[in-house]
Amino acid sequence: MDYLYFAIRRLLQAVLVMFVISLIGFSIQDNLGDPLRELVGQSVSEDERQAMRERMGLNDPFLIQYGRFLGNAVQGDLGNSYFFKKPALEVIAAKFPATLELVIGATIIIITFAVPLGIYCAIRPKSWLARFVMGFSIVGISVPVFLTAIFSIYIFSVELGWMPSFGRGETSDLLGWNSGFLTVDGLVHLVLPSLSLASIMMPLFIRLIRSEMMEILQMEYIRFAWAKGLFPKRIWFLHAFKNTLLPVITVGGVQVGTMLAYTILTESVFQWPGMGFLFLEAVNRVDTPLIIAYIIVVGLIFVVTNTFVDLIYTWVNPTVKLVGQKS
User: Fold this and answer.
1) Residue 326, CA distances (Å) to 2, 322, 323 in order
2) CATH code of the domain containing 199
3) Do residues 197 and 262 touch, judged by C-beta distance below 8 A?
4) Residue 2 in domain
5) Which of 21, 228, 276, 306 allows an S-S link to 263, with CB 3.0 to 4.6 Å?
6) Per the domain annotation, does 80 fall within a domain?
7) 175-210 confidence digits (pLDDT tens)
8) According to the model, what pLDDT value does residue 2 have?
9) Could you tell me the pTM of the whole model?
10) Is 98 among the domain residues?
């Protein structure tokens, strides 16, 4: 019952957060420009503009407009893009696979390098390699992702000519999803953007794995395992690293949403045709419905990810005190 109560509470909180996000997103539309200017241009007379504003409900009070927007949003209608002349959600859905592909590529790179390096730095904290990795991780956290992207383009594309500097490359259809994972050209185009996106998160995970594992290696049951004469690899990987995974997975789940935010910078530098690049184009065109839809979709991804991580964490770790549980 405690877990069910916690789950219901978290779901209600998620609904409340989405309500606030939608309210903020809808509130900023008046500061983005006149939507009629984007729809009809300058040639339409003022009388015609006022008539159109009346038909579109733009002269209604804010609460009435927001109520109408919220009612449509619940039904999956976030308005039509001024530029694409299509539902905003449909436009975002068409770009979402490219962004998801970029996030998956960055996640694979993070797991491939952060896990072994974090374990090594915990096991051999005084070695020269561990010191180098920890020092380099500070630099990685400090350098903005767009500088890493520009630097990688200059080195690997301009100077060496090994990698393409922009675009998504050739894609292949996979159950309706045009994926670059299935073609050599698509994979080559994915390397630099994925590395740039991973560069901001990988140092964080290296340091997290190192600190968590070093703490666990000092615990009594690890000392008891050493006293029993167990093989070092068994102690490091089965006993220590296994118990390190829970907080790492928790933070990792939350950071997935953060990486979606960083894709705006990465996609902008590499001209990657994903959601982030679409958002910047929408801002330049003052495509208000598309901007609001993007804010709500990204907010929904954050909320769903965080809620899911919280529910899984409290389910697999019974030592966590649930919210509302009596002492």
Assistant:
1) 10, 9, 9
2) 1.10.3720.10
3) yes
4) no
5) 276
6) no
7) 777 777 888 888 888 899 999 888 888 888 888 888
8) 67
9) 0.79
10) yes
